Amino acid sequence: EVQLVESGGGLVQPGGSLRLSCAASGFTFSSYAMSWVRQAPGKGLEWVSGISGGAGSTYYADSVEGRFTISRDSSKNTLFLQVNSLRAEDTAVYYCARGMKTIDYWGQGTLVTVSS
Amino acid sequence: QSAVTQPPSASGSPGQSVTISCTGTSTDVGTYNYVSWYQQHPGKAPKLVIYEVSKRPSGVPDRFSGSKSGNTASLTVSGLQAEDEGDYYCGSYAGNKGVFGGGTKLTVL
Question: Scanning every residue of chain B, which has its alpha carbon at the shortest distance from the alpha carbon of A39?
Fold first, then answer.
């Protein structure tokens, strides 16, 4: 059974940083591209970032380019998202998801709240 | 980043059919056959119901079907059931990026 479990969210002040993690199990992690997708409270889904299976390629939405960094540790079956220079508009549930061209499995999400 | 447009709401009575549209551009929906549809219930993670325009994942009822013409993809839910109520999002690959529609709230009357 595919499982994706996010952690690392919380309350952070504007300008602050967090490192989100996603523990993956139930599939060959290194064989799949992975994505982060966020959902602001009461709003729709927004694709944030993606990374290839071999981690050779990373991709970002224009809204986070230069502030967020996606990475993966295939020895630990873990996906990361380093989020820096946080703004109020980054407040959202951040979902870890398997795939990029097709996202087929989602974690339950971790809430990031940016507020002073 | 491109914007993909969905109607904000749709509705139908039990047993009826409803179709939700997803209009993108030539840089996403119109070019790639990587169009997916997701169902989301309140407080839950999205669930994949259609991928690659018209394919159904294992376990998704055949009441759910997808299609695409030009820059517009569509999701049809036939034989509506109460449990189909929720938010539906289309998603498309856009060449090294992903893009989602704004979502459609489906109400089963």
Answer: B45
Find residue A68's DSSP bridge partners.
A83
DSSP-based three-state secondary structure for A65: coil
Model confidence pLDDT, tens digit, residues B22-61: 999 999 999 999 999 999 999 999 999 999 999 999 999 9
Q: Is some CB atom of chain A closer than 8 A to the CB atom of B105?
A: no
User: Taking CB atoms and an 8 Å limit, are B100 and A63 in contact across chains?
Assistant: no
Cα A30 to Cα A57: distance, rounded to the nearest angstrom: 13
* Cα end-to-end span (Å), chain B: 35
Sign, CA torsion A81/A73/A32/B56: negative
Query: What distance, in Å, lies between the first and last C-alpha atoms of chain A?
Result: 40
A112 within 8 A of A94, measured Cβ to Cβ: yes
